[in-house]
Design a protein that fits this description.
By secondary structure, this protein is of the alpha+beta class. 34% of the residues lie in helices and 21% in strands.
């Protein structure tokens, strides 16, 4: 079951996963949005593992630094 495998991958990468949102787009199609924070290498490991799952059609990521100074 894909939902179970998604959860297993998220647990394997440790503390980087902060929030996961599951949205039903149709009867057979869902969207999983995962918000993460942590080391870039750990995040990229998550992206790689998600890409390898059968049944996952699209994986994309955006990175932002937490080291932003606001004046």
């Amino acid at each position: 079951d894909l939902a179970k495998r998604l959860i297993e991958v998220q647990h394997r990468v440790g503390d980087v996963v902060k929030v996961a949102v599951h949205l039903h787009l149709s009867e057979k199609m869902c969207l999983e949005t995962i918000l993460v924070s942590g080391r870039g290498a750990d995040i990229m490991r998550l992206v790689g593992e998600l890409n390898e799952l059968s049944g996952v059609y699209y994986v994309d990521h955006s990175l932002a630094s937490s080291r932003v100074t606001i004046e």
